[in-house]
């Protein structure tokens, strides 16, 4: 009897362990499924605040503005937009037929934070020794591997150009980028950073110290912590030369003393644009200046700012000594070399005392403004969200917690009293709503650098998008005007047309100082890595007359609100459409 009881007890213990194991396996499988579904929702979702946050004002509400959805008792009545004393009927949009990809703000923020956490954990996993042994410098890279070198961030040798791709960096990608810009050497660090130059670093390191695996190529070495894996790419330059762009900047009056203005020069009897550009590229200068047989290399400076161009005819004889207004004018070309005087950035060493927002409606140029601010100040900007595409391209503030105060300002598309009053001050960036809506629609269907297809524009998603997002454009501005504590209003169109004065105004608002040469460097790199390229959609009018009437009403409301707060009204180009 005792023996049978002992066997039963042993069986129950095993069963208990088995049940525990099965329960744990079930929970793990459920967690993985949840994470997979979360990633799918994030890819389909909208960034920032849901359009449901911005609904037009209902009849009978006092004042000019747009009501908070929390104050609406009945979501189904037809909303009206108040424009002075006139009213305009907005089309009623049945919520059950709304865009499938709109999700609530709180749900999306939780998903963004979850994705940030898991990516952060994966990025922190150290490379194992066994993995390092498997890594090699393959012949497929084409360039010749030179060795592992020490990299000093304060005084870099390979400083001709800098590229980041914290997800897909490969040795070949770095080599091709450097070769296309006429550099001799390509160096990789931290598994994701690419540096170009024409001079080898001075200090060699042990080969095993370059132990970071390339983010986009398993088994390949991409430097290490303060270590560069350096390749010679000169043999690639002949093939890349066909793809390199030398951009004509214009005809300008030559400075009085060219040798003092430009650090390098060359005199050649039969000087050509290609010869001068090649010479200046090897010297790692972004400008090639030609006057007669003389070639000068340098940067835009206070002496030679490229702001006041001259008639091209005044430079028509710069290649011979008998004309060109006695040498008073010169031709200027942009070489493939990047102006790196303003590319180094870092986090604030001490926490900022003032919590500043960089607020805009999606598609209004927030990423471009961040690029300008970071390069002008030398400090990273933060974000209320986490955008992996931006982080991978060098916006390292994306992974920093938005309330860390280690960044000069924080990107946000949020509106509403609570979200706005968290900030001490804000730069409010406003763009033409017609352009903003198209830019955000392009981003949703083709990413930061692509264009939506004709099929996307002709689908029912586009009119749903306009009806949902147009009111958000207005409510975003009106909420910040109402609840913002200290505002600097910047119009995207003014920033684009008068970059240096407006950028200086933004930098001063951030309580930062910047030199004139650094601002000129920013102007020379004004587009950054997020200018849309490729097959642009054909000229067409995506807005129906009904859409135009709706948006024009919002424009009038916002313009009146800005002037009521003693800000400059919207640019004239906004209306009429």
TrEMBL record:
Stored PROSITE patterns = WSC
- Cited SUPFAM superfamilies: P-loop containing nucleoside triphosphate hydrolases
Which InterPro entries does the protein's record reference?
A: P-loop_NTPase, Sialate-O-sulfotransferase, Sulfotransferase_dom, WSC_carb-bd
Is Aminoacyl-tRNA synthetase set as a keyword in this record? no
Entry's transmembrane regions: none
Q: Which UniProt keywords apply?
A: Repeat
Q: Does the keyword Zinc apply?
A: no
Which Pfam families does the UniProt entry name for this protein?
A: Sulfotransfer_1 (PF00685), WSC (PF01822)
Classify the source by domain of life.
Eukaryota
- Any one GO MF annotation of this record: sulfotransferase activity
Q: Where is the WSC domain?
A: 142-234, 245-342
Q: Which protein family is named in the record?
A: Belongs to the WSCD family.
This protein's name:
WSCD1 protein
- What would be the name of the gene that encodes this protein? Wscd1
């Amino acid at each position: 009897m005792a023996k049978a009881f002992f066997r039963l007890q042993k069986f129950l213990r095993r069963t208990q362990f088995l049940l525990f194991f099965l329960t744990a396996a079930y929970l793990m499988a459920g967690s993985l499924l949840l994470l997979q579904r979360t990633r799918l929702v994030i890819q389909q979702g909208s960034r920032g605040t849901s359009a449901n946050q911005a609904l037009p004002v209902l009849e009978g509400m006092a004042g000019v503005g747009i009501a908070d959805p929390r104050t609406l008792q009945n979501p189904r009545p037809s909303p009206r937009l108040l424009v002075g004393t006139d009213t305009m009927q907005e089309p009623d949009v049945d919520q059950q037929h709304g865009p499938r990809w709109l999700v609530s703000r709180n749900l999306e923020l939780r998903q963004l934070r979850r994705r940030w956490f898991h990516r952060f954990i994966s990025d922190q996993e150290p490379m194992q020794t066994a993995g390092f042994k498997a890594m090699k410098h393959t012949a497929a890279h084409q360039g010749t591997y030179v060795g592992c070198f020490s990299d000093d961030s304060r005084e870099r040798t390979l400083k001709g150009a800098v590229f980041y791709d914290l997800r897909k960096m490969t040795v070949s990608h770095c080599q091709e980028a450097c070769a296309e810009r006429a550099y001799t050497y390509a160096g990789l660090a931290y598994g994701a950073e690419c540096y170009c130059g024409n001079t080898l670093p001075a200090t060699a390191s042990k080969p095993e110290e370059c132990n970071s695996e390339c983010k986009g190529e398993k088994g390949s070495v991409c430097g290490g912590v303060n270590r560069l894996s350096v390749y010679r790419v000169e043999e690639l330059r002949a093939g890349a030369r066909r793809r390199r762009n030398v951009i004509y900047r214009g005809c300008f009056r030559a400075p009085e003393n060219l040798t003092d203005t430009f650090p390098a020069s060359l005199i050649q009897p039969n000087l050509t644009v290609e010869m001068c550009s090649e010479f200046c590229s090897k010297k790692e200068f972004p400008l090639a200046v030609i006057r007669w047989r003389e070639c000068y290399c340098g940067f835009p400076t206070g002496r030679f700012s490229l702001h006041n161009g001259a008639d091209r005819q005044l430079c028509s004889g710069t290649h011979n000594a008998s004309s060109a207004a006695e040498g008073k004018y010169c031709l200027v070309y942009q070489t493939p070399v990047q102006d790196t005087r303003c590319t180094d950035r870092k986090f604030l060493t001490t926490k900022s005392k003032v919590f500043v927002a960089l607020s805009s409606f999606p598609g209004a140029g927030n990423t471009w403004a961040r690029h300008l601010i970071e390069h002008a100040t030398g400090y990273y900007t933060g974000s209320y969200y986490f955008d992996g595409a931006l982080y991978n391209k060098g916006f390292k503030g994306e992974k920093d917690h938005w309330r860390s105060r280690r960044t000069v300002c924080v990107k946000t598309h949020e509106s509403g009293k609570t979200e706005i009053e968290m900030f001490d001050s804000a730069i409010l960036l406003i763009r033409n709503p017609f352009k903003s809506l198209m830019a955000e629609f392009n981003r949703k269907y083709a990413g930061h650098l692509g264009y939506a297809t004709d099929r996307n524009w002709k689908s029912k998603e586009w009119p749903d998008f306009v009806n949902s997002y147009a009111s958000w454009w207005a409510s975003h501005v009106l909420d910040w005007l109402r609840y913002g504590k200290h505002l600097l209003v910047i119009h995207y169109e003014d920033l684009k047309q008068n970059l240096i004065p407006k950028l200086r105004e933004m930098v001063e608002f951030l309580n930062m100082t910047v030199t004139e040469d650094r601002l000129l460097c920013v102007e020379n790199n004004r587009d950054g890595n997020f200018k849309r390229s490729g097959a642009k959609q054909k000229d067409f009018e995506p807005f129906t007359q009904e859409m135009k009437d709706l948006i024009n009403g919002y424009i009038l409301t916002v313009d009146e609100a800005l002037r009521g707060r003693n800000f400059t009204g919207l640019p004239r180009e906004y209306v009429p459409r």
